[in-house]
Design brief:
By secondary structure, this protein is an all-alpha fold. The chain contains 4 helices and no strands.
C-alpha cells in the first residue's frame, strides 16, 4: 500500500511515508532472515498481496481502483529493496 501511495500520490510524499516504507521492509527482511523458508511463500503470494493492496489503497486514498495496473509495477525484489522508491 505504501509503495502504491508513494507512486500515485507524488504531491503528498513525505519523510513519514519513506520511514513507514523502510519500517515495513525492515520487518519483512527480519522475517525472511529468521525463516528463510518463507522466501518461496513470499514469491507465491506476491500477486495476491498486490491485488489486496490495490483495493485497500483505493479505499484509503479515494483514487479509482482502475488507476492501478492489474499486475504489480514493482517486482518482489524492488518491494524489499531498501533503496527503491517508485517514481510517478
Amino acid at each position: 500500500m505504501r509503495l502504491l501511495k508513494y507512486k500515485y500520490q507524488p504531491d503528498q510524499r513525505s519523510n513519514s511515508w519513506r520511514f513507514t516504507i523502510l519500517e515495513h521492509r525492515d520487518r519483512l527482511e527480519k522475517s525472511l532472515r529468521d525463516s528463510p523458508s518463507l522466501q518461496p511463500y513470499f514469491a507465491s503470494i506476491f500477486a495476491d498481496c498486490y491485488a489486496r493492496a490495490c483495493r485497500k489503497t483505493a479505499v484509503e486514498t479515494g483514487l479509482p481502483l482502475s488507476m492501478f495496473p492489474v499486475l504489480s509495477p514493482f517486482t518482489p525484489g524492488e518491494t524489499l529493496n531498501l533503496n527503491f522508491l517508485p517514481e510517478a
